[in-house]
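Moderator note: this is an archived Q&A kept for reference. The question asked for a predicted structure of one protein chain; the sequence and the answer are reproduced below.
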Amino acid sequence: MSERYPLIRVRAKKGGFELVREGLSISFHMRHSHQRIVENVLRSLEAYRRAVGPQALGLYFDDEGYDHLLDDRGWEVTRRELCERQFPIIWLRDGSDTENRYLFDYWGKNLEDSRVENEPGAVCAATFWLPTEYLEEHGPGRVRELAMELAAPLPLCSGHGGLSFNADYSLMSAKQQIARYWLRYPGIDVYDSPSSISWRVGTRVRGPHWLTFLGQPVLGELGGAAGLRARLHSPGTTVQEMEGDKVLITLGAWPEAGDTERGDTLPAYRELARVLEPWLFRDPRGRMLDQSEEETRRWERRFLD
């Protein structure tokens, strides 16, 4: 167990598949139509592949949910779907049969389509996973650098990176396991339903996280990088300007889970939450992990109350 985060590995009783593991996720939300940003998304995906190695992602899933080997043909299928579809759903996952270490998840949308006219929260959303072994081997500086490489081509409204419960959230057993920990460790993000979030988050911010990316319009409403620096005073918090009218807020050298049972409530995260509160995303479904509305609300306000 790291001093900064717990080791959480839960396996299914049958087959030994990893239901839940502590990991890292890096996500971006873009209020732009997919066809306008597809080349940007491909550049981020290639940067991810270079960083994790060509064998890290080994499976892709078709429209009916069946998995296939992500060999040369699989990559051709993936690129074709990204380039030709207006609403591509891309799910690439770990090459292992039993591990949940690596993932690329993308929900693209044509925001000019008539079906999206009444969906003001719709965005294109991309998520990348890393195992904590990558963090320990390469160090937090390299993870932060990779997150910036992934963000660089993207015209993002917001994004974030840090610790997360990496799991197949479609499985009730995985949700039940995560519900044992999610309120104790406020710094570990709950991935939950990327489809739902991509239809609702809009320009709001899912934060704070160890790494929080802000673009327009929220960055402008906060007064830009200078406005953020004037409001954020916790030791170790930095605000770095990036090309493309966006910034990266980093909360300390390492991502941290916190632990409410030990009184570690992550003060720097709480400070950023107060700054971002008017722009924070609240899931309108009101029930995450199939838990009660009260517990969902507690989790969403874990850095504010």
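Archived answer notes: The mean pLDDT is 95.
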